[in-house]
Amino acid sequence: MRETTQKINSVTLKKHRALRGEMTPPPDKSISHRAVFFSSLAYGKSMVSNVLRAGDTNSTINAFRMLGVEIEEMPDGSLSIDGPGFMQLREPPDVIDCGNSGTTTRLLAGVLSGCRFFSVLTGDQSLRGRPMGRVIRPLHEMGAMIAARDINRYLPMSITGGGLKAITYKMPVASAQVKSAIVLAGLFADGETVIEEPVKSRDHTETMLKAYGADVCVDDLKITVKGGVELSPCDMTVPGDISSAAFFIAGALMVEGSELLIKDVGLNPTRTGFIDVIRKMGADVQVLDGRELSGEPVGSLLCKYTDKLSPITLSKEDIPSLIDEFPILCVLAARAGGVTQIRGASELRVKESDRISAMATELGKMGVKIKEYDDGVAIEGPVELRGSNNLQSYGDHRIAMALSIAAISAEGESVINGTEAVGISYPDFYDTLKGLTH
Ligand code: S3P
């Protein structure tokens, strides 16, 4: 398997001087996945510019190639995706390896449930430990034949799809991946599938599918999708990833003398919880040049060093719009004067790593007073972060990047092990960091 052959890297970092200048974050991971999914399902050729090329999105591209979709990289880096039509995908000749990518796995489970052939999904050690029952249950209800390890809980999972019927489904967890899996299965189902979310999660699937010609209606937390509608190709450009930008936003806020312009960032309101929260904490972040790009709001963010941050209290409703920013938010909270509470976030225990335990352990090594709860953390600040020569990424890209930003604002030297994980969403992370330091 991939994880036994991958080289484990470490990076040594010490306190940086100001982060200054401008940078553009990598393309949005969630939107890139979906652009490949929907273009592959459409009948005809779509051109997608600025697609993220990283571990996770390569898993999605490989999967659709195995399903018979022609995906070609153009000289300018954009992808030409020639879909055979959503009823014409072909049986994959081998097991599909989704690598580290939960989005690839869960969204594919929805698509494959609609396909009248046999397929098997697996992934790396982290992905094989992540819950799949949350997609298997509604897909079973729609009529897909799915079997998975440990009584239908974990990968590998086998799917024999086809003959789906529409359902009405009230989601027990707020998850854009689960919502998207059911919406995608709904495209193949007979009738109208209705999904209700407990809290609004990222809405790229709903927004983008409309541009591909799907019949999707959104009424607050309720999404209705009509089955049997052929998707048409669509040309689009992917905006920058706010979840990747978040590391540099935090770096600029914490490293004295910083002033950083982060350009062309996606600012979809279902993704900007981190910006709202850090502003409440007192951060100096301005949005410049706000506009629309392929149906998504984008803009540039001017971020300046802030010597005073206030603590914040977050609960269940606040989590979905900043779910991936938890690790870096913990680092910022250590700088705030008082106790920050982040609760209602038990989902973080089943991400690429257990992010609650990972951040509590690793920030503890850097001198942060952090208390772990089942569903979150309490962090008491302000503390002067202390370098540690034994920080671990747990194989998780966002833990590696959050600890790296902590390291550049800490006294002394830090060694972060397992930094190869950044290749999952941000292969150029360390080059960008080096280029911004003066
Ligand atoms: C994603 C949804 C979120 C997020 C993940 C990407 C997506 O996961 O954490 O990084 O692209 O739909 P959940 O839907 O499981 O919360």
UniProtKB/TrEMBL annotation:
Record-linked Pfam families: EPSP_synthase
Annotated InterPro entries: Enolpyruvate_Tfrase_dom, Enolpyruvate_Tfrase_sf, EPSP_synthase, EPSP_synthase_CS, RNA3'P_cycl/enolpyr_Trfase_a/b
Catalytic activity reported: 3-phosphoshikimate + phosphoenolpyruvate = 5-O-(1-carboxyvinyl)-3-phosphoshikimate + phosphate
Subcellular location: Cytoplasm
Pathway the protein contributes to: Metabolic intermediate biosynthesis; chorismate biosynthesis; chorismate from D-erythrose 4-phosphate and phosphoenolpyruvate: step 6/7
A GO term for molecular function: 3-phosphoshikimate 1-carboxyvinyltransferase activity
Protein name, UniProt field: 3-phosphoshikimate 1-carboxyvinyltransferase
Lineage: Bacteria, Pseudomonadati, Nitrospirota, Nitrospiria, Nitrospirales
